[in-house]
Structure formats: C-alpha cells, structure tokens
Design goal:
The protein has 12 helices and 4 strands; from the N terminus they run H-H-H-H-H-E-E-H-E-E-H-H-H-H-H-H. With 209 residues, the protein is mainly alpha-helical. The protein folds into 2 domains: 113 residues, Arc Repressor Mutant, subunit A (Orthogonal Bundle); 78 residues, no CATH class. The strands form 2 sheets. It has a two-stranded antiparallel ribbon. The protein has a two-stranded antiparallel sheet with strand order 3-4. Strand 1 and strand 2 form a beta hairpin. The chain is elongated.
Length: 209
C-alpha cells in the first residue's frame, strides 16, 4: 500500500505539447502501463490518479483543476476494454491489463510522447486547443444530440448535470461556473450552434434554482 501511495504521489506531469495530438484513450492506456511497470494493482482509482497527474490539462474537472475527472477516465477505460478496441481487459475491481493489441497501440503512443514520432502539421502553438477540446465534448453529449433533433423538452436535469461535469449533489453555483466556462469557449471560437444550444441550457438551468 505504501509503495502505491508513494508512486502515485511522485508522478510528474508530462508537458502538454507532447500529448496535444494524442487522444484520451491512448493516454489512459499509457497510464495503465506505467502502473503495471511498477508492479502495482491497476485498479480504477489508481488509473484515475495516475492519468490525472500525468495529463492534468485533459483529465481535470472543469472549474476545479486540482481534482481529477473520474468519469472521463471511466469512459476511456470502457472504450479500451470494449470489443471494438480490445486494448485492455479487466474491470474496476480486478484491475486493467494490456492486451496484445493494446501493446501495439502503446508502443506507438510511447514513440509520440518521446518525440520519436512527430505529428505532421504540428507547430507547437494552438491557442484555442482547450476551447475546441471542451466544445467537442459538448457535441458528443446526449443533451446536444437531443438539441440537434429538436427535442429540447427531453433534456433533463440529469442531462444538464452530466453535461456540466457534475453530480446530483453539486451546488447550483458550481453548475453556473462550469456553464460560464463553456459559454466563454463557444464565444471564443464563435461556434453559433453550441452558443444556441447553451442558451437553451441556460433557460433550463434557471428552473433548477
């Protein structure tokens, strides 16, 4: 137990420019391998902490950069263990382990993180990458898909809380703070579709007070 705590505590973050073009599933795969190499159980909690400490820009809660977004890590683990990818096997209780297919993906990921493979077109500067990342998350959300279909009334409180990376116990003030960040990102990128969607979400949020 002490070895595990010390290992997770001592993990240093990787520079953001090294993983800006690497998707989240591959970053989680990298984290699982790092834990495995230390002969430590690759439990869900360990993967959450390791991934957050390695890649804090990607895996922090919106509005709370000092805390990990466990749901985002959970979603990546689900993707990696699903039969269409099959990069990992296992579960939250037994731990996660890399498959032969996953080892091939991991090798490529390691080469990218080390700089051996340089992403074509990367200039080292993407001023709006954070905004685009979060807007992409919005567009993947169930509530946004309901909006696109015109099913505004079907967007529930649960949908809104999930969209804003919160739980049923999260206060309205925090919801509002996360919402403002999303609105700012949509404004910065002038994404009219997301801005219109957020206007609807804002009206529904007022009913949650």
């Amino acid at each position: 137990m002490e070895k595990k705590v010390n290992f997770l505590k001592d993990i240093k973050p990787i520079a953001e420019e090294k993983y800006i073009h690497i998707d989240n599933d591959r970053l989680v795969l990298y984290s699982v391998n790092l834990i495995e190499q230390e002969k430590i159980e690759t439990t869900f909690d360990s993967v959450v902490v390791a991934t957050f400490k390695l890649f804090p820009i990607r895996f922090a809660l919106i509005g709370f950069p000092e805390y990990p977004d466990a749901k985002r890590v959970h979603d990546c683990l689900f993707h990696c263990t699903y039969k269409t990818k099959n990069w990992l096997f296992g579960n939250a209780k037994s731990g996660y382990y890399i498959t032969e297919k996953g080892k091939s993906i991991l090798n490529n990921t390691n080469r990218k993180l080390s700089g051996e493979i340089v992403n074509v077109g990367y200039t080292g500067s993407e001023p709006n990458r954070k905004e685009k990342f979060f807007l992409d998350l919005i567009k993947e959300d169930v509530s946004f898909k309901k909006y696109l279909k015109g099913n505004f009334e079907d967007i529930s409180e649960q949908d809104i809380r999930r969209l804003l990376r919160s739980t049923s116990n999260t206060s309205y003030d925090i919801l509002e703070e996360n919402f403002k960040k999303y609105s700012e990102y949509a404004k910065n990128l002038n994404d009219k579709n997301v801005k219109n969607f957020l206007e609807i979400i804002e009206k529904k949020m007022k009913l949650l007070r």
